[in-house]
Amino acid sequence: MKKIKRSGRLVDMTYFLIQRPHQLVSLSYFSERYQSAKSSISEDLTIVKEIFESQGIGSLLTTAGASGGVKYVPMVNEQEGRQLVKELCEKLEDKERLLPGGYLYMMDILGRPKHLNEIGRLFAAVFSQQKIDAVMTVAMKGIPLAYAIASHLDVPVSIVRRDHRVTEGSMVSINYVSGSAKRIQTMSLARRSLPEGSNVLIVDDFMKAGGTARGMMDLLAEFKANVVGIGVLVEAQDVEERLVDDYVSIARLAEVNQKENRVQAVPGNFLDKLKEVTQK
Description:
Helices cover 37% and strands 25% of the residues. It folds into 2 domains: 6-73, Winged helix-like DNA-binding domain superfamily/Winged helix DNA-binding domain (Arc Repressor Mutant, subunit A, Orthogonal Bundle), CATH 1.10.10; 78-278, Rossmann fold (3-Layer(aba) Sandwich). It is globular. It is of the alpha/beta class.
């Protein structure tokens, strides 16, 4: 790249970092990219850091030493987080999405890249201080959500299936009890999709009793993996027994009245978790 003015460097540097979250980029790389002295690059990064943090976009972490550099960590400030959660709750309260059994139609949310990108950033922010090697979910509806989160964490996605596929090679399978239906079901994960000892973030689009999340935790034990967190887009509130305790939910269904065709959605515990992260 030919030598450009500071204004051009700041624009290109900002775009470069946002496209590569959680990747360590050396000052030498930027120095060569812009044909500028490292002292100038350091000044540029200070400006970018101030803008990122003042606007709640994220933060730049600097690592010293020969192998050091700078890393962009996506974040969400409390005001923006509260607004995004409010908008999601309002979408969920659309009575047209109510399905038999108290479920909600959510593919209009999971199918819109803009909504998913915002939701992915919310989860990435609240889990930003965790060491995460992979995001895991169960096919099918959880897949777009998992990829949205993984893109902001810069980690791969491991997809658990309820059937065996010859194209995925050797599989590890377990039986688990569905938390809501109390049925014995099977879930499987390809052996080569997740290295042993990985730190994994479990993701689910909807949770009632948490049987699916509990099953994924048991499956991860077969890989000697560590569960660093559980992220749930929407959780049901009226549940007799929850099979998982520690999780982060964006929204909670406070009321689902099929007779009156009414849904009331309220914020989950996400905002409390976000506050804990930003205050550290």
